[in-house]
């Protein structure tokens, strides 16, 4: 369980720090490359936080090659953004590029992490975002399923679900 927490927390810090500086930087995580490759241009504290990802082993013993499933070899990532589904790194990055805000700052309230089958990690994030310098913070939740890729020997984002937290109250 400790490894899942370390992997999830390091990933969460890397992802939002990267997204806040330049959202293009998160493309590598959807393309199943080493997450560290995108951290090279980030401040030292970000690089230090993400560098421990490369030293973490998968959470369990490797499966025999004959049992390695498609997602272990790097199936397409899937993003559900406010109910809209985007499959594959190209479609996901097109969606992230199309977001109307120019600047964003994520404030992480909590990131809960659990190991999953086949060496994966679920990361459930809740937080707030400040968009384009607006004083009003938007609450959000995002769920990542990080999957171990036996070909690259690292994690990639297999699933990503994002929602702005809007509550509809009954009037009356």
UniProtKB/TrEMBL annotation:
Signal peptide: none annotated. This is NTF2 domain-containing protein. One of its GO terms (biological process) is nucleocytoplasmic transport. It comes from Capsaspora owczarzaki (strain ATCC 30864). InterPro entries: NTF2, NTF2-like_dom_sf, NTF2_dom, Nuclear_transport_factor_2_euk. It holds the Pfam family NTF2. Residues 7-164 form the NTF2 domain.
């Amino acid at each position: 369980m400790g490894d899942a927490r370390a992997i999830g927390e390091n990933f969460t810090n890397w992802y939002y720090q990267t997204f806040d500086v330049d959202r293009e930087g998160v493309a590598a995580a959807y393309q199943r490359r080493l997450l560290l490759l995108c951290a090279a241009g980030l401040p030292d504290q970000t690089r230090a936080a993400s560098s421990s990802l490369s030293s973490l082993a998968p959470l369990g013993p490797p499966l025999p090659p004959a049992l390695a499933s498609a997602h272990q070899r790097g199936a397409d990532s899937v993003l559900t953004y406010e109910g809209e589904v985007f499959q594959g790194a190209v479609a996901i990055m097109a969606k992230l590029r199309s977001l109307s805000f120019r600047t964003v700052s994520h404030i992480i309230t909590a990131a809960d992490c659990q190991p999953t089958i086949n060496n994966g990690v679920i990361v459930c994030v809740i937080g707030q975002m400040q968009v384009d310098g607006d004083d009003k913070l938007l609450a959000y939740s995002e769920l990542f399923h990080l999957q171990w890729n036996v070909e690259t020997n690292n994690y990639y984002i297999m699933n990503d679900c994002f929602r702005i937290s809007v509550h509809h109250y009954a009037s009356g």
